[in-house]
Design a protein that fits this description.
The chain is mainly alpha-helical. The relative contact order is 0.14. Helix content is about 60%, strand content about 0%. The protein has one domain. The radius of gyration is 13 Å and the shape is flat. The chain starts with 5 loop residues before the first helix and ends with a helix.
């Protein structure tokens, strides 16, 4: 498993359903890719988390509502 995914995988271990893990994994990867952040360092580097969520929301606002609501 590559290093970038370790924090995400640690988080996902709490969910017994593989479909839930797969879904959340995809959403988290999209979030971190959108804000161009490394999940391994995200909570340790003084980022503006509120701004990151706003950036992500702006990136997905034009997606269909069902897709957007899952994120």
């Amino acid at each position: 498993m590559d290093k970038v995914m370790n924090k995400i995988e640690e988080f996902l271990e709490d969910y017994p359903s593989s479909s839930t893990r797969n879904s959340y994994r995809g959403h988290l990867k999209k979030f971190f890719n959108t804000i161009e952040a490394d999940p391994e360092q995200y909570f340790n580097n003084g980022r503006d988390h509120e701004q990151d969520v706003k950036t992500f929301w702006r990136a997905i606002i034009d997606e269909p509502p069902c897709t957007r609501n899952m994120r």
